[in-house]
Amino acid sequence: MNNSAPLLITTGEPAGIGPEITLMLAANGQLNNTVVIGDTELLSQRAALLGLHLDMVEATPGSGEVSSPKRLVVWPAALREPAHPGMLNPANASYVLETLQIAVDACLHGHAAAMVTAPLHKGVIIEGGFPRFTGHTEWLRDACGVDEVVMLLATDQALHAQSSRWQGSSDLRVALVTTHLPLRDVADAVTHDKITRISRLLATDLKNQFGIMAPRIAVCGLNPHAGEDGHLGREELDVIIPALKALRAEGLDIQGPLPADTLFTPRHLAGVDAVLAMYHDQGLAVLKYAGFGQAANITLGLPLVRTSVDHGTALSLAGHGTADPNSLGVALALARRLTTQRANALVAS
């Protein structure tokens, strides 16, 4: 990782709000030392539609060209077909994935310090000829050739390394054991091995990327009331409790499983650095209630820094200039901090 290299922003689904929230940040002077990956003509058209005046310059990885106030540097990728706000087109699925591949390659080859992703639309990518696509997180895992990654979302107040532990209702870090799975498949995916691998990665990157030297993790049960001693499901007794016991024997400060409906309360969160939820909506519904639009998504376990927004493509808002760019701004600021913290951790080791 080249800590002095620029940060990258991939503009995501071209029919969504990704291109315009990127342009909004650029117009506000928030994209210094960054590069945007996307279709230059699309960005120019969307800027004109929104009345934003930016000088756009195309460049290539390693050129040294970076954005500055009112000057947007773009590493170009070509749309397969013209894109219109709010109108999905599966023909552009490969374009979206190309922007991600450019970003990954640049990070791995030292041409970029980190990548920040605007939202994409999973359904249109599947319809565009990629039936096994399940999301950014899993795609990045495979693109980087790692066995396991962790999806962690954090509200803005929890993103600073200095404020490590829970301070209030808007201060949350939530990681997931399973990510983009149908609910009926979740129980089978919650295994002893999965829990131990995710927990180790979470503890390691809370230390290396957030500077939390002795992280304390609270774990949700899978079933209501954490299984009620086996009366409401045996996953806690047979899988989760043995996994957490083994992790504690390794030295991790990890508690649970706790009933998810009470874990997210002040008494249980006091002194906790992160919550590990068993499935997507169990953890993220609470986090987004606490800080939607003020949070960012981080992929742990990669050989690069990747952050993202906490929202979707918002097709109904695209092209109207009413989308809120704040989550992308939070993700960008977080990427800057994580690259510095990660570099410091590497030096210390």
TrEMBL record:
Cofactors that this protein relies on: Zn(2+); Mg(2+); Co(2+)
Q: What GO molecular function annotation could you give as one example from this UniProt entry?
A: 4-hydroxythreonine-4-phosphate dehydrogenase activity
InterPro entries, per this entry? Answer: PdxA, PdxA_fam
What's the domain of life for this entry? Bacteria
This enzyme's EC code(s)? 1.1.1.262
Q: Name one GO biological process term.
A: pyridoxal phosphate biosynthetic process
Instruction: Name the UniProt key words of this record, in alphabetical order.
Output: Cobalt, Cytoplasm, Magnesium, Metal-binding, NAD, NADP, Oxidoreductase, Pyridoxine biosynthesis, Zinc
Reaction(s) this enzyme catalyzes, per UniProt: 4-(phosphooxy)-L-threonine + NAD(+) = 3-amino-2-oxopropyl phosphate + CO2 + NADH
Q: Could you tell me what the cofactor note in this record states?
A: Binds 1 divalent metal cation per subunit. Can use ions such as Zn(2+), Mg(2+) or Co(2+).
Q: In which pathway does it act?
A: Cofactor biosynthesis; pyridoxine 5'-phosphate biosynthesis; pyridoxine 5'-phosphate from D-erythrose 4-phosphate: step 4/5
The signal peptide, as residue positions, is none
One Pfam family in the UniProt entry: PdxA
GO CC list: cytoplasm
Question: Binding positions for a divalent metal cation?
Answer: 180, 225, 280
Subcellular location per UniProt equals:
Cytoplasm
Q: Where does substrate bind?
A: 136-137, 288, 297, 306
- Per its UniProt record, what PANTHER family does this chain match? 4-HYDROXYTHREONINE-4-PHOSPHATE DEHYDROGENASE (PTHR30004)
Q: Which HAMAP family match?
A: PdxA (MF_00536)
Q: What does this protein do?
A: Catalyzes the NAD(P)-dependent oxidation of 4-(phosphooxy)-L-threonine (HTP) into 2-amino-3-oxo-4-(phosphooxy)butyric acid which spontaneously decarboxylates to form 3-amino-2-oxopropyl phosphate (AHAP).
Q: What else is known?
A: The active site is located at the dimer interface.
Quaternary arrangement and interactors, per the entry?
Homodimer.
**Stated family:** Belongs to the PdxA family.
Q: What is this protein called?
A: 4-hydroxythreonine-4-phosphate dehydrogenase
Identify the species of origin.
Vreelandella andesensis
